Here is the input.
Amino acid sequence: MLPEISGPAVHIEKLTKCFGDFTAVDKLTLDVQRGEIFGFLGPNGAGKSTTIRMLCGLMAPTSGSAVVGGFDVTTHPEDVKRSIGYMSQKFSLYDDLTVKENIEFFAGVYGVSAETFPARLDFVLKMAELEDKQDTPTRLLSGGWKQRLALGCAILHEPPILFLDEPTSGVDPIARRNFWELIYQLSASGHTIFVTTHYMDEAEYCHRIALMYGGRMIALGSPAELKRSLGVGRLLNLETSDLLESLTLLYGGDNILDVAVFGAGLHIKVDDADRAIKWIRSKLDEAGIVVSVLEPITPSMEDVFVSLIEQEEKAAA
Here is the structure.
């Protein structure tokens, strides 16, 4: 049974972390609700991991405040550590121990009593589907199985809040998808999940997302809300016989708000899709460029993120 938390699971107010003259996290303010899967999305160096370390009581803020599970991270960091589970992108497992021995070790670290350990061991092995691997040396596990074991070790003490710092980094797509199924199960059972990632597709799995860039939160909302911010029917996918020449010809053109390379084509943000399509076809036809695909599409999280970063960079310039 998870302990009750009054108010938000995580409350952050103008949280700031500076290293000399460098501001890694800049006046971050947000709440994470109980049972929510909250995604922290951004490139390397955006301030995600620094924020996680402050929220876990591992690093003192320069200014501002944060309350996690009802405990202030500055004045009660040890209480915070006892009330959370933490999993980093570098799994904190011991390769020379078996799966069961790793679970036993972390049970001791988290203070799981001898009376409750058998039930917790059984839960972790079943959740991670490691029952038939409990006597296997951890070094022989694939990245996906190590990932599941690390998550199981992080929730041995039944913490109400889990911090997962880029937990799927370096594992294959199938293992990533299976891992997110576990996260959904934990959320359904009442756990609050705070997860950082730089995989745009993973952001789709979160209830809400904060987009981080340069230490600042530049957007906050559900995946659907953030996609709508680009405008329904205002994003076009274009594939042509000459991608780079098409980019040069269209950039800054009539009704064209933005153009970006996306895979084998271009994603074009426009004011009016019908008018833009006619203009684009005419422009490329004049240049002798063959259009194979030109159609309105639903924005992806990558489209949202690229658009928002470009806005930030233009504003800074």
